[in-house]
Amino acid sequence: MTTEGPDREALLRAREGDEEAARTLLARHGGSMMRTARASLGRASPGEAEDVVQEAWVAALSTEALPTGDVGAWLRAIAVRKALDARRVHARRPETTGLLDPERDPGAGGEGSRVAVLAVREALARLAPLDRATLVLADLEGRSMAEVGRILGSTEVAVRLRASRARRKLRRLLGDLPLEGDPA
Amino acid sequence: MTLRQWTRRVMEMAAEPARPGDLESLQAALPAILARARRERDAATPMTTWDVLVPLTRRWLPALVAAAASLAVLAFLFSQPASADPWESLLGAQAAAEAPAGDIVADAITGVDAP
Fold first, then answer.
1. Distance CA A129, CA A40 (A)
2. B88 vs A: CB within 8 A
3. Distance in angstroms (rounded) separating the CA atoms of residues A156 and B93
4. pLDDT digits 0-9 by tens, A81-108
5. How many Cβ pairs closer than 8 A exist between chain A and B?
6. How large is the ipTM?
7. What is the reported pTM?
8. Chain A residues near residue B2 by CB distance under 8 angstroms
9. Which of A180, A178, A156, A183 is nearest to A167 (CA)?
10. CA–CA separation, A81 vs A102, rounded Å?
């Protein structure tokens, strides 16, 4: 069942100050926004992803613009843009916490897979923020290059080139990390 | 598996699962988020003509000043009357004065009729 219509309604009501509608929307999309924000930030200090998501909510509730399709995808796109803004603001600040932060859950699985997860996070953190945002939107979110271009304020061709370059860099950084079904 | 599919898989692997506390802290911040959103909406008043003109003027003012100065210089130069004695005439007259007597070219310049 699609939640597009009810989500739009909830968004409109939340903009008018309806806290219950905002809570419903947050319960539905807050978790995925946090996940997207963390992926876009790469190395994130504690609370940074939450700040980014809060900024995204403020933007979503204060703008006049309305999403044309999936409200959740629209909210996650705002979170990616806010993560990029946060990275620009703190570009010169040394990052004190990293992907090896024990606070960050490397997921279930054996020691090997936990090491692999941490290695992938480390490699993602080494990408340029815009490259990471491009991969989050294009590959993790599965958006078209044209959509990614619109979200990031770039052309489709530029986004395609950036994504291709970022994927190759990620592949290079991860080297021979054992993953099932690796491309040759 | 293409490189794109591989990247997707790698990124899904690296993505953190939602933490139990994530939603609670966001829900707790919701009243503040709503209040801030309302303030920002209220602050966003419709743009007036001045709101559009002032930034445009600021942006283009140096170029406008430079263009106006160039036009003024050009206008000044063109407004000057042409010299009564252009340099070609002066050089011709000087050459004619220094020419030996009977030089028909010099005579032509000075207006003396040939014999």
1. 7
2. no
3. 72
4. 999 999 887 665 544 444 444 455 555 5
5. 121
6. 0.74
7. 0.65
8. 183
9. A183
10. 27
Taking an 8 Å cut-off on Cβ atoms, the answer to whether A135 and B7 are in contact is: yes
Query: 């898989």: which residue's tokens?
Result: B9
Residues 6 or more apart whose Cβ sits within 8 Å of residue A126: A42, A173
Are the Cβ atoms of A22 and B17 closer than 8 angstroms?
no
pLDDT tens-digit map of B13-60: 888 777 778 888 899 999 999 999 999 888 876 677 787 788 888 888
Measured CA to CA, the distance from residue B82 to residue A157 in angstroms comes to: 59
Q: Which residues of A touch B25 (CB under 8 A)?
A: 50
Q: Which residues of B touch A35 (CB under 8 A)?
A: 15-18
Sequence-separated (6 or more) residues with CB below 8 Å from residue B111: none
**Cβ-contact B22, A34 below 8 angstroms:** yes
**A183–B1 C-beta distance less than 8 A:** yes
First and final C-alpha spacing in chain B:
106
Contacts of B56 (CB under 8 A, 6+ apart): none
Is the Cβ of A11 closer than 8 Å to some Cβ of chain B?
no
Give the separation between CA A143 and CA A53, rounded to whole angstroms.
20
* A17 contacts B33? CB cut-off 8 A: no
Q: Are A17 and B42 in contact (CB under 8 A)?
A: no
